[in-house]
Sequence to fold (57 residues):
Amino acid sequence: MNTPTDLSSYVRVLKLASTPSWEEFSQVAKIAGAGIALVGLLGFLIYTVMFYIPGGP
Fold:
């Protein structure tokens, strides 16, 4: 493991990185929120089905 080479590659990546615009951030936040809501809904549906099946939780 060559530490100076690794550090220079990390610095190069950080120089290329930029702060997202508000529109880009908003779009990513909406997509992430929709994904979280979908997973929560799926978990709720599975729980509801298991609740009504005998021997459920």
